Amino acid sequence: MDYMIGLDIGTTSVKTVLFDDKGKVSGYSNNLYPLYQDKPDMAEEDPEEIFSALVDGLTTVLRKANLKPGELKGVSFSAAMHSLILLDDDHKPLTRAITWADNRAVNYADELRENGVGKQIYEKTGTPIHPMTPLTKLIWLRNEHKDLFDKARWFVGIKEYIIYKLFGVLKEDYSIANATGMFNIFNMDWDDQALELAGVTRDQLPELVDTTDTVSGMNADYARVIGIDPETPFVMGASDGPLANLGVDAIDPGVVAVTIGTSGAVRVITDKPKIDPKARVFCYYLAKDKWVVGGPVNNGGIVFRWVRDQLFAPEKITAEQMKIDSYDLLTEIASKVPAGSDGLIFHPFLGGERAPIWDANARGSFFGLTRTHTRAHMVRAALEGIVYNLYTVMIALEEVVGKPKSIQATGGFARSALWRQMLADIFEQDVTIPESVEGTALGAATLGMYSLGLIDDLSEVKKFIGVANVHHPNPETYEAYRALVPIYIRLSRQLQTEYKAIADFQRSQEAKKQSDDVK
Q1: How confident is the model at residue 437 (pLDDT cuts 50, 70, 90)?
Q2: Pair 285, 389 in one domain
Q3: What pLDDT shows up at residue 204?
Q4: Are residues 91 and 201 in the same domain?
Q5: Would you give the DSSP letter of residue 352?
Q6: What is the pLDDT of residue 111?
Q7: What 3-state class would DSSP assign to 346?
Q8: Mean of per-residue pLDDT scores for the chain
Q9: Across 42-51, 64-73, 193-202, 407-416, least confident range
Q10: Closest Cα partner for 473 from 355, 339, 359, 371?
Q11: Are 131 and 109 in contact (CB under 8 A)?
Q12: DSSP SS3 for 18
């Protein structure tokens, strides 16, 4: 039997998933690493910790699988977008990996949007202007950390760093490059205007290659530790968003993929690049004649984690003692509250927001609180707020690519029946949940199989998905959600005028605390 590994380098962990040639999971490892948030708006990871997690994951899966020589046909990468690492002449990191969630470049992103240059860049790169992008991070570093910026010989993301460590080559696939904000999607090359803004040159960036390109010849020491033939081909793969579409078979026109993991997204595939005149959605490359148009949100499962840790700490401890999943306990509590949370609305902007408002200063809020509301209402409102926000992304996407024909959903939320039903009810559309919840890793493995000639077309992913669960919208919820969604949207617009003021106040308070701590 043939096997392929999908390596999913995510925001909080590396998932290593071994698939057989029928798409069945034959091995799995999930290796965690911390997110460092030592300063206001910081969100960094240690590239060596990520590399160790990846090596450990591969080692664990391959040892347990005990494959025969030649059965592992290849490994294919997926990676979170927008990371940035500065390397010196010897390819050693000068920084940690600055992730998509890092908002320290917010002032430079705001300036680009206000002076009109950001719109010009967006129209060529398909990447909205936001502090998530390496483009704005580089502008920030060049202006505020010039000594560090000037020491750098190379500017890469986490996937490129890992590939260099394993294979000694510096390459970047079109999909990851596309998300830097410096890649022109119409000529498939680095964009001159964006590079000038960032203050970098082509020879400081990796070689651009297609997502189906391969590398081999792994460092012998790492190959020995992992237990892999060093000539095993590793497929470059793509970024996690486009691969999540592929992994849930949302690759036909009009088929929308909704993902809620730590963050979330709504995406659809087109056969050519599409740009939103209002710059609300991205356009990212997946493979030849396949472009993913959609919007990402910062606030998905990470909001649910906040609710659990900050509002339901006793229940979390109880769940641990009873050896049950704390999230299952919270969704059970939320299920006792009617749809619409009796008029309680939550804006889930705990970490700023990307689509559709693209405002790193956005902050979360409960609206409509009364004495009758309980913590149960608050947890349900938080879950509904995440889906409301995704629905506003869907509204923007419809203006660019038209009405969806169907919705495929994946991510950690797919394990929750309540959340799945909520998605169907708020979107008022059938939602299909593929049997495999590891959609991104399956997308990477499928692209790898296609690259290596093991399948003839990406559409063969249909054979790997398995039986799907379909959730139909419940008409009994229509009245509540149809009334509340417009209020949610109007509030978002009205509150946006005050987000910067409250964010600036919070930053000043945090800076004061740090100054007092030093004293």
Answers
A1: low
A2: yes
A3: 98
A4: yes
A5: B
A6: 97
A7: strand
A8: 95
A9: 407-416
A10: 339
A11: yes
A12: strand
C-alpha span between 69 and 229 (Å, rounded): 8
* CB-CB contact of 329 with 315 (8 Å): yes
pLDDT at 414: 78
Ramachandran bin of 453, using left for φ above 0, alpha for ψ from -120 to 50, beta for the remaining angles:
left
pLDDT digits 0-9 by tens, 271-317: 999 999 999 999 999 999 999 999 999 999 999 999 999 999 999 99
Q: End-to-end CA distance of the chain: give it in Å, rounded.
A: 64
**String of DSSP letters for 245-268:** HHHTT--STTEEEEEESSSEEEEE
| 136 & 276 share domain | no
pLDDT digits (tens, 9 = 90+) for 450-496: 999 999 999 999 999 876 789 999 999 999 999 999 999 999 999 99
Residues 94 and 184 in one domain: yes
Residue 338 token pair = 């009617």
Q: Are residues 212 and 176 in the same domain?
A: yes
- Tokens 């470049």 locate to 105
Residue 102 lies in a domain: yes
Domain that holds residue 288: 249-435+474-518
3-class state of residue 399 by DSSP: helix
Domain total in the chain? 2
Clarify whether residues 359 and 293 are in a common domain.
Answer: yes
Q: What are phi and psi of 367, to 5 degrees?
A: -130, 135
Q: Do residues 137 and 269 both lie within one domain?
A: no
The answer to whether residue 217 is domain-embedded is: yes
Residues 6+ apart with CB under 8 A from 493: none
Residues 445, 409 contacting (CB under 8 angstroms) = no
Angle at 136 between CA 256 and CA 211, to 5 degrees: 45
Residue 516: pLDDT band with limits 50, 70, 90: confident
Looking up tokens 């300063």 gives 39
Which of 397, 404, 293, 305 lies closest to 350 in space, CA to CA? 305
Closest CA relative to residue 54, chosen from 158, 144, 181, 146:
158
* Neighbouring residues of 449: CB distance < 8 A, sequence distance ≥ 6: 4, 21, 73, 74, 76, 455, 460
Looking at the structure, tell me whether residues 297 and 222 fall in a common domain. no
DSSP 8-class letter at 72: E
Residue where a domain terminates, one of 223, 243, 263? 243
In three-state secondary structure terms, 151 is helix
Q: Per the confidence metrics, is the pTM higher than 0.85?
A: yes
**Domain edge (last residue) among 212, 243, 274:** 243
